[in-house]
Amino acid sequence: MLSIDAMSRESLGDVEHFVLVAILRLGGESYGAAILDEIEARTGREVARSAVYIAMRRLEDKGLLASRMGEATAVRGGRSKRYFALTKAGARQLAQSRREFVEMWAGADHLLRKATR
Amino acid sequence: MRRPPWLAAWLLRWWLHPADRDEILGDLEEQFAARAALHGERAAARWYGRQTLGVCWRQRWRRPLANPRPSPIDRRPFADFWMDARHGARLCRRQPRFALGVMAVLALGIGAATAMAAVAYGVLFRPLPVQDEASLAVVYDVRRGVADAAPISFPRFQAWRASGAFADLAAVSYARADLSGAEGPERVMAARVSDNFFAVLGMSPVLGRMWTVADRAAPDIPAIISDGFWKRRFAADPAVVGRALYEGSRTYVVVGVMPPRFERWRREAHLWVPIERSESPRILGSRGYHIVSPVGRLAPGAVVDVVQARLDALDRPFEQERPFEGHARVVALREDVTDPQLARLLLFASAGVGLTWLVVCANVAGLMATRGAQRTMEVAIRVAVGARRSRILRQLLVESLVIALPSGAAGALLSIWVVDALVAGAPAGLLDAGSVVVDLPVLLFASALTIASAALSGILPAIRMSGAALRSTSQALRLRRRGASVVVVAEIAAALAVLVGASLLVTSAANVDRVPLGFDPNPVLNVHVNLPSARYGSADGKDDGRYLPVQRELLGRLRALPGVEAASIGGIIFVAGGDGRVSVSFDDGRRLLNGNPQERPLAPGHLFVGPDYMSVHGARLVEGRDVTHDDLFGAPPVVLVNETMARMHWPGESPIGKRLNFGLYRPRQGYDEPWAEVIGVVGDIRHAGVAVPARPEVYRSALQYPRQEFDLVLRTSVPPETLVPMVRARIRDVDPEILITATRRLADVVADATSPVRYTSALMSGLAAVTAVLCGFGVFSLLAHATASRQREIGIRLALGADRRRVAIDVIRQAVRLLAAGLLVGVAVAWYAARALESVLFEVTPSDPATFAVAAAAIAVVALVAALVPARRAAQEDPASVLRGE
Q1: What number is the ipTM of this complex?
Q2: Which of A76, B330, B491, B709 has the highest count of CB atoms within 10 angstroms of its CB?
Q3: pTM of the full structure
Q4: Is A81 near chain B, with CB under 8 Å?
């Protein structure tokens, strides 16, 4: 029980992971719509909108993301964007997450192929 | 610029916490625009809708994104509300049977009250299909003792219109129109109106246009038709403008169609035509023809009384002139269209439904209080950990709202169904399906009622519970018992009042049905026909020998029909509210003038009857002979009189052989009609209404005065309605052009006249039954509860050796005390309420002691039976187990 709690505090959930990678790719153009489009374009599936927003809030609370309100545009019905950027801690967490994944997968690809065949 | 669907966007905006709104809505809109460009707007709109639902589903209402769980102390105003509501919903789930029971009872109460409101609103308050009805008024002519709503002459109307007493005044004259043409013959009500009629009312056709002065001068008469007529006769043909309608030699051309409901807002009319084209200039120019009822728009700020005074001043110079009409009477439009008797019945029924609703609330309050007793501990704990009384009160009220809201929704649905049934079951012309519907105003009422139900049924237990925790148990118990007593007394009183009202109406309806009419309507079929002028000539409403051959042929053919016992001709024997009278001179020099207020009550009503007319209707011939086939046009005139006429005008002697004259007397020329000899006396018949006593009456021979328009009356040995197709066929055989404008069972005509009373009494008795059951149920549940709360006391008494019978009697005595108080209050309420019914009751006084006694006895039986169960339960209590339980 305790160990699971401890783990979840350290490692990232799926959606959180996706959000952080999307922000990494988008750089200065990271805001809700762009992030959602990026995730959808890459994964090929629609993610729950609320889940993405909630994930971004949680990441911000954890200090892995920073945000600022941007300009309002006509295409948004005169509403402003909230831009996100990775913090140092966010970048570190992402790197660690990736390393964990890669470590876990090392040499397992052919096994997966066999299992799904 | 493409916009996302407004409803979804609005929902989201309302749903989201303000801090998140800009970001999420902006993102969605941006993506929407991109998707719309790529996949088309409809696909994008669907996507937007899905996203909206997804966000609302995942996201709690008005919570910021970052914080999916509520914080322990939430200061926003709705937070408490939702918490309490969730708590209430949990309670319902824990006791589903209790919750469903309460909801069902409440839904019944709210449904009944909403349905009643829909009817009362539809009939009495729904805005009329005219603009600004408050500034519209109708003007009648009053001739004291003769008529209080008579039409006026056209010149008088013109003088009034020109005077400026009204901002504008329009003339209306109602007439029947017998239409022919490709769509078949049909009789409709037509209104002949002045050009400004529609402008005065502020209404215009929804299809086509108003007629213009040029239209009015064209050879074909312009006509505007009603929505109902358009749908019925023209199957709602959008190209109806320009179609022709024929009435005799006249041709109407349709120029417009009025909106729905317009045809029934005052008197029914389906065809509006210019009065100048449909009445002859001679009639329009004369002060002798009283044909128009004006409707006018008051000038801004004008008052009915002032307008009335101005019209009186205008009339004054003509007062010496003959024939002078009477005095103007200005009536506000709303007052004019409201039938006072129906209004009274509706208000009474509304009061009954209101009382039933109160009984429902009282029952629910009782049930909630019973449950409340079980929750005293919960409340006590909450108070102990620091909840304020107001906070607990609020919680309990929200909980009752959680129960009331679904009940209100169910009640509103129920009311839609009930209103449909009420309108479908109502006698013709009583409820207009277009006006009596469950729509926005009615639903608003239902919502208000729901909230009121929640407050009423929740507030008593709530106050008691929130206070109970603060007091000692014994104090709380006493208070609870007193509250329950008040509820029981109120329920019994309400039930008694409703029952008394219902019984009075039922008695009244039964009395109406029992009145001897003087004729038997059941086997009689009435066929109203009109001979086409083209073939038989037009006599302008006068008698004419040309009509005689065809009338005799019709009679002969119909008499030969199998199933027809006798056939005759004349006028319809029963016209509800009819009060036509005739001036008459006697051979001894007396004269009675129909137009003279003093003489009018003595002047006889007057009907034309053919041979066998009396036997067709099963009326008695008291003395002398009946009209025969020899009393024809041109033969010496004969007349029958009724018993009242004989008694009133020839007291103590036989009228047979006396002579009457119905003609005009001119000093030099004498009478313009021959004298008629009284040949027989017939039994009294109630012609004008079941509740209208017989008046003096004369019957002249219909064959002596053949009319273009008449009734064929058939006495049948089979159910009359089964003969209708054959009768129509026979009349067609004689001449296919003869217009059959109505075929009705006489029994239906009579039933229609009494149907409002019958209908209301049926409604009220249903209501009374429901109320009595609810009242019994309420007495039972509250007494059971009261007894249960005395369990400990009863246990101790039994343990100390009290007699079991005494204990049971004690419980019953408590019930009897409540019953007595309830009946006392109920009698007072019913006494007062029943007086409002007086004018609609027939041969039963509103304070009828028998009715009160029976109703009180019925309630007493219900209440005592309801008390018996808790009494027995108390007596069978095992003292040991009760005391062990403590």
Answers
A1: 0.86
A2: B491
A3: 0.64
A4: yes
